[in-house]
Structure formats: structure tokens, C-alpha cells
Design brief:
The complex is a heterodimer of chains A (114) and B (113). Chain A is mainly β. Helix content of chain A is 0%, strand content 54%. The radius of gyration of chain A is 13 Å and the shape is globular. By secondary structure, chain B is an all-beta fold. Helices cover 0% and strands 58% of the residues of chain B. The chains are: A mainly beta (114), B mainly beta (113). At the A-B interface, strand 5 and strand 10 of A face strand 4, strand 5, strand 9 and strand 10 of B.
């Protein structure tokens, strides 16, 4: 079985550009999470969805960030406009259920904003 | 404001010895704790977990200890192997709101052959 799939694996862009990160969760999982990893703050939860509905977006840094989950097999995280401080590794994870146990992480997208 | 803290950014241990990774938390509403291991260029993978109703959980070479009064958990790896070299994250489930996991900043373990 395929794990969580993220694309692209690496993204280099210039400040002010729009960036879209993509995620395909494990088939059958109904909860999806977006995290950002930085040295200072570790893994921060940005937003999570349950049954395609956003449940908690309190970790989204600001209005420049938006996330969608149009169906059970696809989600996007968009940054518009991007800034150098957004440079980080972004992970998508999925799991089954709402009370949560083990989450399954994708390989991450390393974003560099110049 | 970090609710889950891993105060040691890195740790080096000799192969065959014990590795002890520590994690402190501040919120008494945390009821479930997990450890994840992360290799470079990969996503974190689940390692072991413990419920707040227990004080110890063991899985092979890995044991997690929970001290609720001190709001402290630790991961013991015995014996340590070079393949254990990775970044280890602890995570705590927050039940005070919408149920989510709060992760620490990670500890990089290096096991020396």
C-alpha cells in the first residue's frame, strides 16, 4: 500500500510568489493534518481535517496560508504571497478516526523562499 | 509558548549503551503521548505510545516512562544501535479543545559505533 504522498518534494520560489503544496492521504483514512517543521518550533500543527471538513485551523500562521480538502483523497496547502520566513519542511499526515493514535506522515516538502 | 519541550537538542551515545531521551509538558489535559522517529529526508514514523493511565510501556528495545506528577516522559533505548541515529519527537494529545497532538522540537540522537 502506498503511504501518504506529497508533492513536490522540493520547492524553491521567490518572495511574493504563490506556492501550492499537495497531499494524497492513505486510502481509507479520514483525518488529514498539515504540519510545518522548523528548528525553533519543531513540528507545528497548521490545520487538520476530518471527513474533508476543517476542524482546527488555529495553527495557520496568517491569512497568507490557506488549505483545502475537496475530496477524501486530496488536499492542498497554499501560501500567497510567500515570504522568506515561510521556508521550512511541510508535512502532511493522515490517520483513521477522530480521537487519533498513530499518524502516518508523508515524506515532506522542503520549501525555500528566496 | 512550547507546551511540549525537549530540552536536549542532541545526544550522543555509544553503541550498546542506553539512550535516554526526555520530554516535559505543561498541560495537565494531555492524556496520551507518542514518540516518533525521523530519518533525514523522510517523514516521522511512529515508535511507541503511552496512555496517561499507565506509567510504563515497553516494546522490544524501546520503553517509555511517564511521570504524571512531574509532567515528564522519557524514552529509553536499550541497547542502542547505529540504526537508531535519528531525530526523535515526543507528542502529546491535547483533549482540551478539538483533540490534536502537540509536538516537541525534537532530539537528535547519534549512536556511535
Amino acid at each position: 500500500d502506498a503511504g501518504v504522498i506529497q508533492s513536490p518534494r522540493h520547492e524553491v520560489t521567490e518572495m511574493g510568489q504563490e506556492v501550492t503544496l499537495r497531499c494524497k492521504p492513505i486510502s481509507g483514512h479520514n483525518s488529514l493534518f498539515w504540519y510545518r517543521q522548523t528548528m525553533m518550533r519543531g513540528l507545528e500543527l497548521l490545520i487538520y481535517f476530518n471527513n474533508n471538513v476543517p476542524i482546527d485551523d488555529s495553527g495557520m500562521p496568517e491569512d497568507r496560508f490557506s488549505a483545502k480538502m475537496p475530496n477524501a483523497s486530496f488536499s492542498t496547502l497554499k501560501i500567497q504571497p510567500s515570504e522568506p520566513r515561510d521556508s521550512a519542511v511541510y508535512f502532511c499526515a493522515s490517520t483513521l478516526g477522530t480521537s487519533f493514535g498513530e499518524q502516518f506522515f508523508g515524506p515532506g516538502t522542503r520549501l525555500t523562499v528566496l | 509558548d512550547q507546551q511540549v519541550k525537549q530540552n536536549s537538542p542532541s545526544l550522543s551515545v555509544q553503541e550498546g549503551r542506553i539512550s535516554i531521551l526526555n520530554c516535559d509538558y505543561t498541560n495537565s489535559m494531555f492524556d496520551y503521548f507518542l514518540w516518533y522517529k525521523k530519518y533525514p529526508a523522510e517523514g516521522p514514523t511512529f515508535l511507541i505510545s503511552i496512555s496517561s493511565i499507565k506509567d510504563k510501556n515497553e516494546d522490544g528495545r524501546f520503553t517509555v516512562f511517564l511521570n504524571k506528577s512531574a509532567k515528564h516522559l522519557s524514552l529509553h533505548i536499550v541497547p542502542s544501535q547505529p540504526g537508531d541515529s535519528a531525530v526523535y519527537f515526543c507528542a502529546a494529545r491535547d483533549t482540551s479543545g478539538t483533540y490534536k497532538y502537540i509536538f516537541g522540537t525534537g532530539t537528535r540522537l547519534k549512536v556511535l559505533a
